[in-house]
Amino acid sequence: MAMINCPECGKEISDKTLSCPNCGYPLNSNENYNISYQEYFVKKKTPGKGFGIAGMVLGIIGVVYSTMLLLSTFSLLMTESVGVADELFKSGMIGMGVYMMIFGILALTFGCVSRSRGYKKGQSTAAVALGIITVVFCLAIIMVSALA
Ligand SMILES: [Zn+2]
User: Fold this and answer.
1) Which residue, among 53, 60, 69, 52, has the nearest Cα to 111 in the 3D structure?
2) CB within 5 A of ion ligand 1: which residues?
3) Quick one: 140 and 101 in the same domain?
4) From ligand 1's centre to the CA of 30, what distance in Å?
5) Do 61 and 10 lie in a common domain?
């Protein structure tokens, strides 16, 4: 068994292997060659591979911050300590709600893109779910602040 260097990543690998164990580059011609070759390049060329994880991270940030924002909106309104700063407080909360909603919409979009391309179903679904929760929480923040 001879050792060759992978043409894609340069790592030393067996010449009998069908695809590089390091980077997945398809090496030897056989009946699977065309399928694996296509899969490799579809995965490599199609954007969206990192969208699932990016969406999930944005979704986690969105849910954490929008939860804190929602709780502080409620607690501040309940203590009635807002007083003369009412309008400023409300517009501040609405602004922050809109700002956090961007995270939710991005998480939702990235999750949908990733799901539609078949990448990391778990991460993609989590990104979609977290994005929806963030958007709902932000709508609640905006509505509570606007109607208060
Ligand atoms: Zn390789």
Assistant:
1) 52
2) 6, 8-9, 20, 22-23, 25
3) yes
4) 18
5) no
